[in-house]
Amino acid sequence: MNQFEQFHLFLENADPILVVAHLYPDGDAISSTLAMGYVLRQLGKKVTMVNESPIPQKFSFLPGVEEIKLADSVSEIFPYAIALDCADAERMGSCRSLIREKAIVVNIDHHATNDRYGTINIIQPQAAATAEIIFDWVEEADFPVDRQLAACIYTGLLTDTGGFRYSNTSSKVFTQAAKLLETGIESHKIADAVLETVTMEQLQLLQTALSTLQKSEDGLVAWMDLRKQDIDRFANSHEDLDGIVNYARNIYGVDVGILFHETNDRTIKVSFRSREMVDVGNLAKSFGGGGHARAAGCSISGTLQEAHHRVLSLVQSKLKQECEV
Amino acid sequence: MNQFEQFHLFLENADPILVVAHLYPDGDAISSTLAMGYVLRQLGKKVTMVNESPIPQKFSFLPGVEEIKLADSVSEIFPYAIALDCADAERMGSCRSLIREKAIVVNIDHHATNDRYGTINIIQPQAAATAEIIFDWVEEADFPVDRQLAACIYTGLLTDTGGFRYSNTSSKVFTQAAKLLETGIESHKIADAVLETVTMEQLQLLQTALSTLQKSEDGLVAWMDLRKQDIDRFANSHEDLDGIVNYARNIYGVDVGILFHETNDRTIKVSFRSREMVDVGNLAKSFGGGGHARAAGCSISGTLQEAHHRVLSLVQSKLKQECEV
Ligand SMILES: [Mn+2]
Ligand SMILES: [Mn+2]
Does the beta-carbon distance from A247 to B203 stay under 8 Å? Predict the structure, then answer.
């Protein structure tokens, strides 16, 4: 029996169903929740969509988004749940408490690290997004795809591939995107809302960070700072800092881009991005942090100057090793 | 006889062939030149690829790009030419002088305004890029598509759709992208080089512009300035200013983004971008400029302050009209 067949058996009896994704939801988490919720309701199910965290404003255009409830506001406990885009059960955050102890949980995800916490586990690490898996299911089951469903799935593909720019952008992703556009969705408006739109505060933070931009003599490392007072002044949420570090990495010839930001008087959060030479996951690990080869982070006690010194000297020695290989 | 059949007849005799695109070439112009040159050489033709302007550094990864010659360095005059992505013959710039007076010219383009200056005209306004038309031809003729050819065509699609974000991103564009990725091209590296990579100078210009960012009281208009001395200090080419105006337009709630930049002591160049309310093409026309509804520009004599005043008051009155409708 393939994974979708198990899921279909589950759907024969499951009702009501809780649909949940990870806390601090990204485009894929939100879109997957909405797409799954939409199809289940078409199938006549009583569905509650929930998240621990509020939905970022830039996703407010998504059809049905106002129906995703905050965990706090739900009192019901569910015998059936579908967890989306969660590599482990903890990623659901406080939504876990809405799932009955012996509930049947369907775990649909594309993270290779998924620990198979579900009763039924549909894990496809080769998928670029959980939305991609949902679209596979929708197609296999021959559910009709209207604009509302297409807009949700498209948003998931778009965001988890970084606007079709990351290495997970497969031929299949484009084939799915082509089919979704045939429903008549205005993909340019989705891209505008999700990928282009910024707040005034984000630009003010970016400007402040860029005013501190420095590059190493060899041109391989670029870094920027954000002081606590800048963040207090301009950032409404942690999200507002997203993407700033990429500006350093994106400079022609740079391999490692770094953002140092003061979180309080004695701690500096460090974000790393790299192109191909330095494994910044390893680098971050040296400071007790973590992440991937191309994107990682850590926290360092001390002043900005101390953090600069410790991080930049290690980056330089890693680069020297790389150049010697 | 369809357009491609005429083109095939042309190819029976044409040799040597000049392949040319528009001056200040963008990704589509460069990619189309390389893709066409590559296929014609596979067909055994003697091909000279040429452009009036140097190729921007960010396209230097494209296979064969070093073979595109500057018009100045070519002394031969050609009896056959293929003009790509040029809405009129003037767009070839000085390359026109390399085409014999009674030459047979094939005009392949996707601009709706194309004036059909060719002997054979293959104009497809519904195509997102000239590269899309070339891929149609390649497929119809059943030419093999290897990675080198795929990388070129992909780059053309990618750049002319603004990374698949503009409204010209059709289902067909995604279908073509899916096929191109099947050759094994590393599309994420192309996106990185072409869409993400910036120069230090571009970031310095961006930082300077952002430091002047202002928003109207109603939040519908945002604008920035660049003074002559900033541009002299940081910009290597006009290209370095590209995209800066988008930051103003992209602010949440803003409809019109404007960049004012001093070109000399008494002239201000004004770039406009808009979301949906104000037709900035009309707006620019009021000042003797031009463009489209969503992107336009003009030049205004006077100081920055005078330009602000004249432009912003007209924008406000257009917005008032819009809101009254
Ligand atoms: Mn995901
Ligand atoms: Mn073009």
Answer: yes
CATH class of A200-324: alpha beta
CATH superfamily name and code, A3-196? inorganic pyrophosphatase (n-terminal core) (3.90.1640.10)
CB contact under 8 A, A213 and B203: yes
Q: What is the ipTM of this complex?
A: 0.94
Asked whether the CA dihedral A137, A140, A143, A149 is positive or negative, the reply is positive
Looking at the CA of A156, which ligand is closest?
Answer: 1
Q: Please give chain A's pLDDT, 325 residues, in tens.
A: 678 999 999 999 999 999 999 999 999 999 999 999 999 999 999 999 999 999 998 999 999 999 999 999 999 999 999 999 999 999 999 999 999 999 999 999 999 999 999 999 999 999 999 999 999 999 999 999 999 999 999 999 999 999 999 999 999 999 999 999 999 999 999 999 999 999 999 999 999 999 999 999 999 999 999 999 998 888 877 778 888 999 999 999 999 999 999 987 789 999 999 999 999 999 999 999 998 899 999 999 999 999 999 999 999 999 988 877 6
DSSP A178-215: HHHHTTT--HHHHHIIIII-B-HHHHHHHHHHHTT-EE
Residues B226 and A160: their CA atoms lie apart, in Å, by 35
C-beta of residue B258 within 8 angstroms of C-beta of residue B222: yes
* Domain regions of chain B by residue span: 3-196, 200-324
For A197, nearest residue in chain B (alpha carbons): B250
**Sheet arrangement for strand A17-21:** A69-70, A47-51, A17-21, A78-84, A99-109, A120-123
Task: Identify residues of B whose CB sits under 8 angstroms from chain A CBs.
Answer: 57-58, 163-167, 169-172, 174-175, 177-179, 181-182, 186-188, 191-192, 195-200, 203-204, 206-207, 210-211, 213, 215, 222, 246-247, 250-252, 275
